[in-house]
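Continued from yesterday's entry.
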Amino acid sequence: MREDIPEWLGKPPRRGTDEWEAWLAKWRAYARAELKDTAADDPEFDFGLLTMEERWQVALALEIRKHIEQGRAGGPCPFLQNRSISDLLHASVVAWQVGRSVFSTEPNERTLLADQWVTKRLNPRRRRIAHGIRYGFLAGLGGEPAEPAWSSADYVAAYEAAWNVGNAMAIDSDPR
């Protein structure tokens, strides 16, 4: 939770209570007006109450989920869009590759371009995140418990997001 909550607002009460709802309404009004925080209305980002690192991890999870599904559907690779290269874009392309591998294992021009694009832009952080996406997805698909191999926050976030998608696929395809 973020540290810059004003004193006049006080500490947040227990979630799910009437006090929480009243406190949250005050917080959201303050965050929108004073902090110009667009996440104040977004439940995915806990109404703006997350730290910047926690927001990045949520954004990573959303990108992974979106692009694994896009790859599974045979959609376009995200690097073809005109965006600056970032760790999130790199993770999106890796997630697309993972989803694409479920759609088809046959290499084509798009998959070869994506492989080259990912390889050329690897750095230690992106390598950890890519590993988390690939192995998390496989573990989830195989019905294995979520057991990330590394403890860095970015790796764990990528692993858990991909594991959730893989696990959901395994549950959906289970004939029982």
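--- second protein ---
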Amino acid sequence: MISYAFVDGFTRVARDEAIERLKRAIAEADGVIVDFAFFGAQAIRLTVELDAASLAVLRRAFAEAEIELFSRCVADLDAAKGMDAAHPIVAMLHVAFVPAEADAGVAAHAT
């Protein structure tokens, strides 16, 4: 049984708007941000505490926020569906801010 999840993705939404969308997605999943770090204007890393049932909510909220997740992360989130819904999870979220005009090659690796 996992106690942590690595959620790695990217967005083409402008950085400040993307951060607001991240915060709303985490709040929608009843998550609590316990730590964060910025990597310049390129990315953000957040440590979030939530329960296993909220991982599906987080995934849906990220899709609505135009935050694309890499396929291995989607598989991990799908695997968590079989867990006890109340099981506590620490999620390490990493989101890269990709300029809208950047090469579409990044998207080829995400789902």
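Helices lie at 15-28, 54-64, 71-79. The mean pLDDT is 88. Will compare against the first tomorrow.
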